[in-house]
Amino acid sequence: MAERLFKIFLVLSIFIILPIQIGTAEQTGTQEKKDLWRELNHTSDSILRNVKEGNYDDAKELLNRFSDDFLSIRAADENLTMRELQVITSVYDEVNEAVVSVSLPHKDRVEKASKLRLLVDVYDAPHEMLWERTRSSLITPISNMKSAVEAGNNTKFQNDLNAFINSYETVRPAWSISLEDENYEMIEAQIKYLQHLRGNFQNDKEILEHLDRMEAQLNKIYDGTKEDTSDPSLIWVMLTIGGAIVLSLTYTGWKKYKGEKEREKQRRRDRRRLR
């Protein structure tokens, strides 16, 4: 009888203790990933600070450390998708080239380093991301473009559009990782169409209407509102852009694309729940 009770106790102990051990191991792994991302984020901040101060050699050394630390993260964070790895690697390469490029203006180097800073911060602070503070850098050029169109000043419009594109390129990698796919693809399509319109400045009414749509979309992004894929304006943009964009963004293709991306989106959500 005593032997039987001992066996029952042993089995119950296994069922009770084993899940606790597994849970503890998972928590340890999750904390390790958080710590690695936090350290990488601090490094990206130091890189940006040194670039701003013109300390390019120090920034280069920090980029070498960044590369080593990122290898550790790749080994520890199994939730990183291939696309995310490509985005991070591509932005890192841009900054690495920028800090050693003698011919590149200081302003451009700072923009490259800022791009990396905003991107890495998405992983360290997914609930309070730095890019959320960049609203004015995109909304202000939109307002300036409207004023230029209304005044018939094509030169100012082109300059303001260039300023907008520069600001967008800085935040774009972070958005490609952190935004809902619908919001990101929508603003991408709108910007491509705006660039198409820049050669038709005389069509001021269409440009102003498109800028209004872009401003509304940007406000949705900064306010954290999910894009409604049934919105007729989305279909309008997809059908208007033309050429290869039409082929890739027609409504039927969009629905199929959305379905294919759902698995990646779910992995993203799973990773953030672990954090």
From TrEMBL:
Keywords, in A-Z order: Membrane, Transmembrane, Transmembrane helix
Annotated TM spans: 234-254
Matches recorded under InterPro entries: Spore_YpjB (IPR014231)
Cited Pfam families: Spore_YpjB
Protein name: Sporulation protein YpjB
Protein's organism: Evansella cellulosilytica (strain ATCC 21833 / DSM 2522 / FERM P-1141 / JCM 9156 / N-4) (Bacillus cellulosilyticus)
